[in-house]
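Below is a filled-in request sheet from our internal design queue. Each sheet records the structural input a requester submitted and the sequence that came back. We keep these sheets so that new team members can see what a complete request looks like end to end.

REQUESTER: design group, bay 2
PRIORITY: normal
MODE: inverse folding
CHAIN LENGTH: 354
BACKBONE (tokenized):
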């Protein structure tokens, strides 16, 4: 029997059906910005070309995403697809875990790219006829970090309720928040790096081999609330991105990681695999430089960013799936790290037991 029992029982990822190459997106961007001067358009195109992303998935055709819509219209699309894809992702994870919907005791959902009350998990619970005393925990307003945050909260719940099975659905549709009347560089950059996706995981205590939780940490960097966030305007969600975000991560990276690992009798070089939310190309390049100092890499993070873009809170699930599908070693020490508005860094230390 293993000392650590909280185990990843299943992991499922889903992508919306619409997808476009970077070249197709750039052509649409040129149409969008056609009223701007040539220098402005050229700079915007350079941002998209420099994003390092080859393809993006979305919940609507590209011409719809770049059309002028009301907040009501875009949010209705969010609601429809959140319920549909949330159900599909959870069913896929349940099948992999050999579980039934009524086996789930707690459902945690993360999403910051739309708004609905009740949250989409209520509809999923109804559609799958899940148990009436299920604990529903919808998480919003912590952005990209929420994927790791939900894993941390699941671990806390499982410690409190050892027999529980926890399902987590991280679901984000940033493409649905494009503001076509907003020509700020924040809006253009966010349009260039974000895309849509869903990840779903199931966790529970198990004596069987697998990837198990060792420890967790939530870290808050004080006085940094302005570096990243969403502002709600009449037309919808408007991304706020400050250049300082890269410096904030770089300045705090070792302080976030080293004491946490030391508490678990590990050094920074003892981690076999770092799974880091990539943010954007500048952030991933900065993290790669930090990793080279200790002869490590974040290849899974870069690959997911390149293949799918930044999927906000859903991204870390895709990165973990990539690691599990491609790893060549066993008994790895794994550190997953997510960043989000606040500014915060949430970490979960995992260990593979065989």
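RETURNED SEQUENCE:
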């Amino acid at each position: 029997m293993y000392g650590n029992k909280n185990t990843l029982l299943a992991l499922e990822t889903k992508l919306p059906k619409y997808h476009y190459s970077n070249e197709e997106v750039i052509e649409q961007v040129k149409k969008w910005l056609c009223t701007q001067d040539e220098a402005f358009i050229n700079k915007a195109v350079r941002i998209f070309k420099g994003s390092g992303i080859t393809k993006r998935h979305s919940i609507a055709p590209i011409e719809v995403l770049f059309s002028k819509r009301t907040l009501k219209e875009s949010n209705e699309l969010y609601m429809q697809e959140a319920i549909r894809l949330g159900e599909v992702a959870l069913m896929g994870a349940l099948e992999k875990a050999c579980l039934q919907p009524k086996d789930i005791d707690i459902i945690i959902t993360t999403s910051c790219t739309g708004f609905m009350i009740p949250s989409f998990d209520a509809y999923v619970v109804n559609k799958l006829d899940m148990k009436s005393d299920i604990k529903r925990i919808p998480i919003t307003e912590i952005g990209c970090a929420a994927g790791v945050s939900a894993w941390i909260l699941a671990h806390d719940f499982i410690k409190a309720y050892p027999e529980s099975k926890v399902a987590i659905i991280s679901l984000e549709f940033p493409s649905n928040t494009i503001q076509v009347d907003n020509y700020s560089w924040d809006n253009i950059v966010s349009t260039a790096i974000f895309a849509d996706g869903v990840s779903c995981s199931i966790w529970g205590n198990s004596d069987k081999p697998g990837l198990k939780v060792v420890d967790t940490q939530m870290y808050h960097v004080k006085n940094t609330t302005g570096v990243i966030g969403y502002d709600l305007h009449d037309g919808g969600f408007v991304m706020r991105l400050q250049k300082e975000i890269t410096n904030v991560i770089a300045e705090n990276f070792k302080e976030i990681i080293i004491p946490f690992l030391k508490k678990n009798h590990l050094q920074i070089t003892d981690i076999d695999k770092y799974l880091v939310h990539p943010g954007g190309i500048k952030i991933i390049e900065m993290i790669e430089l930090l990793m080279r100092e200790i002869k490590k890499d974040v290849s899974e993070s870069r690959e997911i960013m390149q293949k799918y873009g930044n999927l906000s809170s859903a991204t870390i699930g895709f990165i973990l799936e990539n690691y599990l599908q491609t790893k060549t070693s066993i008994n790895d020490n794994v550190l997953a790290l997510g960043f989000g508005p606040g500014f915060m860094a949430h970490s979960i230390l995992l260990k593979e037991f065989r």
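SHEET NOTES:
- The two ends are 11 Å apart (CA to CA).
- Residues 71-97 form the longest helix (27 residues).
FILED BY: M.R.
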